[in-house]
Amino acid sequence: MSSITEIKDAMPAYAKDLKLNLSSMANNPGMTDQQVYGTALACAFASRNAKLIKAVAAEAKEKLSEEAIEAAKGAAAIMGMNNIYYRFVHLVSDAEYGTMPARLRMNIIGKPGIDKADFELFSIAVSAINGCGMCIDSHDKVLKGAGVKKETIQNAIRIASVIHAVAVVIDAEDALAD
């Protein structure tokens, strides 16, 4: 499957709602194409499903600059690291871990190559997939400080939820087919 249309067409009957939500993914009032497709691409990478990554990447290539594509991939990569580390810091009972330096390189967050707010939007969506409350709070604060509306943030999380659920269905159906 190399397109989102093919992904939608392959959704089983029990996932009809996901198919419908995937169909309306691009219709997010208040979001630019860069925000929609960058969020979707970052979330597809975070989903780890090869079929979905290829399909979303193919469509994103038509809508995004090379810089935005790299930023979306970078958001998935850096959040893959940060979400584990900061989720640990948040969940561990020993508060001293929160005072210790992380000593993790995170340069892309400061210089993502695209509008910082858009990169933060990709990052909050990936953080939602990865379940890091500390990161979600941090990105939410930065986004609101940059003037991003709550509806836009909610739309990014909606995209993340649909992309992740579609990946789950593809993985499950592939497992049954083996």
State the gist of this model.
This protein has about 180 residues and is mostly helical.
Structure description:
- The chain is globular.
- 73% of the residues lie in helices and 0% in strands.
- It has helices at 4-10, 16-23, 33-47, 50-63, 66-91, 107-110, 116-130, 133-145, 150-177.
- The chain has one domain (4-177): AhpD-like (Up-down Bundle).
- The relative contact order is 0.18.
- With 178 residues, the protein is mainly alpha-helical.
- The model has no long low-confidence stretch (mean pLDDT 96).
- Helix 3 packs antiparallel against helix 4 and helix 3 runs parallel beside helix 9.
- It is an enzyme of class 1 (oxidoreductase).
- InterPro entries: AhpD (IPR004674), AhpD-like (IPR029032), AhpD_core (IPR004675), CMD-like (IPR003779).
